[in-house]
Design brief:
Elements lengths: L4 H10 L6 H13 L3 E4 L6 H12 L3 E5 L6 H4 L1 E3 L1 H11 L6 H8 L5 E3 L1 H6 L7 E5 L6 H13 L1 E4 L3 E4 L5 E6 L7 H5 L2 E4 L5 H11 L5 H15 L9 H13 L10 H8 L3 H7 L4 H28 L1
Parallel strand pairs: 1-8, 1-9, 2-5, 5-8
Antiparallel strand pairs: 3-4, 6-7
Helix pairs in contact: 1-2, 1-3, 10-11, 11-15
Length: 312
């Protein structure tokens, strides 16, 4: 999938995805060694986006299994299309000479509605990226279902038999840590821990995704994000939500965040009523804006000082 770490870095930047050298190295090793990635961290820290960045960089697509409580094999792997089977029987009933052969024909992939896990194994042109999103929401018994796929790259389906992978997908499993993932799955995976980016990194992400805005505004927004995440909100803003904020400011032709913008920005940054009430406190939002500007000015000075040292 990738020939070098430098190639991944270059392609990730082209896909407008920034990450550290350790993550780049682990992605390279996982692609060459055919190992799944297990990524844990808070919601909105870039876990899911990594899967799409890998797919973009590799010129392939993502097969996404969105996990939830109560998900079963039919949703993940697929099931036989009983309506299609019945239609086939009705058209063949007058011609049947060998019922055993007819029964075998009914239980083939032609009559099977494939789920994302099976579609990922059946990709032919090139390997896809299999994203198992929020795996912490499933049960341990469902985890066991994944073990066969991740161990020998095949899946056993009643009446259909064992389906072997045509190509081996690049697997990314994400967890928000609502439940501890079992050891068997952990042992088969490379493990990454994602946290919210540093303000400097987030400013670089904003600069890469919002190139039409002033660099100082990127510093202020990154500082504002740091302030929000440090304020014990019920739903701290994700990287994607800060990018939405940047786009909103661009559309409003605003070059700085001010306390007077509170009511306009609340729908973008407060996602629960309790967070909204906290930000409506008399000094709450104003303090966050002030702290954000302070962080932004510190980052700007560090960057300026670093540039001067390099030039000397």
């Amino acid at each position: 999938m990738f020939e070098s770490i430098e190639e991944i870095s270059s392609r990730f930047r082209f896909a407008k995805y920034l990450t550290d050298w350790v993550t780049l190295t682990v992605v390279f090793l996982a692609s060459r060694m055919k190992k799944p990635l297990l990524i844990e961290g808070p919601p909105g820290s870039g876990k899911t986006e990594l899967a799409y960045a890998v797919a973009h960089a590799a010129g392939t697509h993502v097969e996404r299994l969105q996990c939830y409580e109560g998900i079963d094999e039919d949703k993940a792997i697929g099931k036989f299309d009983e309506g299609l089977q019945k239609l086939y029987l009705e058209t063949q009933v007058t011609q049947v000479r060998d019922w055993s052969e007819t029964r075998r024909n009914l239980h083939t992939l032609e009559f099977f509605n494939e789920g994302p896990l099976l579609r990922a194994l059946l990709c032919e042109d090139r390997p896809c990226v299999l994203l198992v999103d929020e795996i912490d929401k499933v049960t341990q018994s469902f985890e066991a279902l994944l073990l066969e796929i991740l161990s020998v790259w095949q899946v056993s389906i009643p009446k259909l038999g064992t389906v072997k992978a045509r190509t081996i997908p690049f697997v990314v499993m994400t967890s928000n840590e609502e439940r501890r993932i079992g050891d068997p799955l952990r042992r088969r995976s490379f493990y990454l821990r994602f946290d919210y980016p540093t303000p400097e990194t987030e400013a670089d992400i904003l600069a890469l995704r919002s190139s039409d805005q002033a660099r100082q505004l990127h510093f202020e927004m990154a500082g504002f994000a740091k302030s929000l995440r440090g304020w014990s909100l019920e739903k701290p803003p994700s990287i994607a939500e800060i990018l939405d904020l940047a786009q909103a400011l661009s559309l409003l032709e605003v070059q700085e965040i001010t306390p007077e913008m509170r009511d306009i920005l609340l729908p973008l940054i407060a996602k629960t009523e309790s967070d909204r009430r906290r930000l409506l406190l008399r000094d709450g939002f104003e303090c966050l804006v002030t702290d954000g500007k302070g962080y932004g000015e510190e980052m700007s000075l560090r960057v300026t000082s670093g540039s001067e040292v390099k030039n000397q």
